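During the reporting period the student researcher (J.K.) took over the structure-prediction task from the postdoctoral fellow and processed the backlog of single-chain submissions. One of the processed entries is reproduced below for the supervisory committee.
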Amino acid sequence: MATILRFFADYAVLIYLLLTIGLVFTLHALGRARHELLESVFGLERELARGHINQAVAALTLVILLALSELILTAFLIPNLPAFSILPTQTLNPLATQTSTIPAELLATIQALTPESTITAQASGCVPGQIMITDPKPGDIIKGSIKLQGTANIPNFGFFKYEFSAEGLDTWQTILAGNTVVQDGWLGDWDTSLITPGFYDLRLVVTDSQGSALPPCIIPVQIAAL
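J.K. obtained the following structure tokens:
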């Protein structure tokens, strides 16, 4: 469902353009059918003209309904979904479990520049009872699909998301988001199978109902090859 909503939001201009073209064609067809009816002399001709009018009216009604549906989705429904209205557009869809790969060339360059890079195995920014990642733990070596455990529970809670970035970079990729409070429980899954093995930071960001994000809880992890 989130993917469908994102499609209608991202291609709204193109959809409106196509609907406008459809509206022009249906209005032209309706006008031509009315002209046929006025010019008809025999009963069979008038019946055919009425049939053409009914077809044109049905097509016009369909175009109008599609336009209204697109308007309701883009103007009212999608902006009221927290993950769509607050998360930056360059991040992945927060309502769908997806991961993004970091190019192997970029990671190789990073590791070449920092050959002594190691995980410090220390979390930062975490607040017990409010913003915490409890599993995996700082310094853990992970691979494949893993379950993330922790806490996302702040006053005036809005939603949470968790993201990852190559160690030392500030290029965060959203993994998943949720809009329900979690207290020392399951935050979601992370499939690391498509990510280049190496050192990464994992962070949990919790945002209040006003759209203000608190300092994130960040832990270092290492992704191993399958």
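The committee noted the following: The longest strand covers residues 198-208.
J.K. will present the remaining backlog at the next meeting.
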